[in-house]
Amino acid sequence: MTSPLEPRRTTTHRIGAEVSSEELLLELPAAHSAARAARGLVRQFAMARGVGGSDLDKLVLVADELMTNAVDHGGGMGTLDAKDLTSPVRMQLALQVTAAGWQIEVSDQGGGDPELVDRLLHPEGEPDLEDERGRGLFLLALECESIEVRRSADELDLCLVAHCSLGMSG
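Structure (tokenized):
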């Protein structure tokens, strides 16, 4: 049996173009310990495909923030270690890296309202800087060219998809 953290090779097909690439697919317990382990795998996967420097740092930051958000708000209830989960709640990560950039998708089983999450990503003004929480998605959106929020195909999971071109890091 393979580890749930082991990358799998796939061929990806997109509308309008057929792109063959390797994709890192992870299914993880919705716990911070799993997010930490996945962060290292994301870094290794991207480095093996030539991503480095500030581009690599941005990718790892975005992956970590999306997974942390899934643990805290997407069904994991902020669980630190997978052994402490009270139910088998999971999150998934899919990362694609091309010569032009990367796309990362994190989905969770927390349900959630895509419209509410989109308002957090793209508020009409800046979030209240005095609030202890609530700025993470807003700040994440500033780091990426785009972040989309949607329901999974089965309408059960909430998915956040971030895109960024390489060479765009400051």
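Strands lie at 12-14, 17-19, 23-29, 90-97, 101-108, 146-151, 158-165. Helices lie at 32-48, 53-73, 114-121, 136-143.
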